[in-house]
């Protein structure tokens, strides 16, 4: 959970994954509609299936650290989520896990490192940059904002990151896609939110909710 010093431990990471599953399920149809406008239309379904698999795994065993939780999420997403989302999110979680492998609890500096590593994994896998109308447009401002928060306060870093991710996702609407299936539409991709950026913003806001909710949010089956 988040301690009084704003540090985040393995119990928080489990709550984050469960809360992510809940919000992805809640926004499943929205994500499908967004992806149907400029992609394959399967983003919401794929993400929902992946996070349901994560929750099922958590119900069997609770990870003992933030790094273990993120690595488990990476493995489940890579094996259960089709399309581009599985490899992209899986790489993000795997890189993030490596970045915090030596931390029992995350302060603001560690949160910033975790998010930067996740973003770098997405960039390495998808070859997209800011402005290409992809999930990078949510992750890059999130990683940059986390650095500006109190380095001792993990929750403050998460809040800054989630706020920036939401702004970044909204800013994808007027962009013309330069990567992924949406890029095939050219100018017609403008006027639509990028579904990957939206799901990224939902997941990063879920991290804040998990931090602020304390130990009451992560009981067995939560988020299923």
Can you give a write-up of this model?
One of its GO terms (cellular component) is cytosol. Pfam families: Dak2. Keywords: Kinase, Transferase. By secondary structure, this protein is mostly helical. The chain has one domain: Alpha Horseshoe (Serine Threonine Protein Phosphatase 5, Tetratricopeptide repeat), CATH 1.25.40.340. Helices cover 64% and strands 0% of the residues. It is globular, with a radius of gyration of 16 Å. The chain starts with 9 loop residues before the first helix and ends in an 11-residue tail after the last helix.
Task: Give the terminus-to-terminus CA distance.
Answer: 20 Å
Average per-residue pLDDT, rounded, comes to 91
Integer-rounded radius of gyration: 16 Å
Based on the structure given, which CATH architecture is correct? Alpha Horseshoe
Query: How many H/I helical runs?
Result: 9
Helix proportion? 55-70%
Following the backbone from N to C, one meets helices and strands in this order, namely HHHHHHHHH
Here the CATH topology equals: Serine Threonine Protein Phosphatase 5, Tetratricopeptide repeat
| Overall structural domain count | 1
Structural class designation? mainly alpha
By CATH reckoning, the class would read Mainly Alpha
Q: Report the count of strand segments.
A: 0
In the predicted model, the low-confidence regions spanning at least 5 consecutive residues are: 215-224
The major sheet is characterized as:
none
- Backbone shape: globular
Give the name of the CATH superfamily: DhaL domain
Strand content: under 5%
């Amino acid at each position: 959970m988040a301690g009084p010093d704003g540090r985040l431990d393995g119990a928080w990471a489990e709550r984050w994954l469960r809360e992510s599953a809940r919000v992805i399920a809640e926004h499943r149809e929205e994500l499908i509609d967004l992806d149907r406008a400029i992609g394959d239309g399967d983003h919401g379904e794929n993400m929902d299936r992946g996070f349901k698999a994560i929750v099922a795994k958590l119900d069997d065993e609770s990870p003992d650290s933030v790094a273990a939780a993120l690595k488990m999420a990476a493995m489940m997403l890579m094996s259960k989520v089709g399309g581009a989302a599985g490899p992209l999110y899986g790489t993000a979680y795997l890189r993030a896990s490596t970045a915090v492998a030596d931390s029992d609890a995350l302060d603001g500096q560690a949160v910033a490192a975790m998010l930067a590593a996740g973003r770098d994994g997405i960039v390495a896998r998808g070859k997209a940059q800011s402005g290409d109308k992809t999930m990078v447009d949510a992750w890059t401002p999130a990683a940059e904002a986390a650095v500006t928060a109190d380095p001792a306060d993990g929750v403050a870093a998460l809040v800054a990151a989630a706020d920036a991710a939401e702004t970044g996702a909204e800013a994808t609407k007027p962009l013309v896609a330069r990567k992924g299936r949406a890029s095939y539409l050219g100018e017609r991709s403008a006027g639509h939110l990028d579904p990957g950026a939206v799901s990224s913003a939902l997941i990063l806001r879920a991290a804040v909710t998990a931090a602020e909710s304390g130990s009451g949010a992560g009981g067995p089956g939560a988020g299923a």
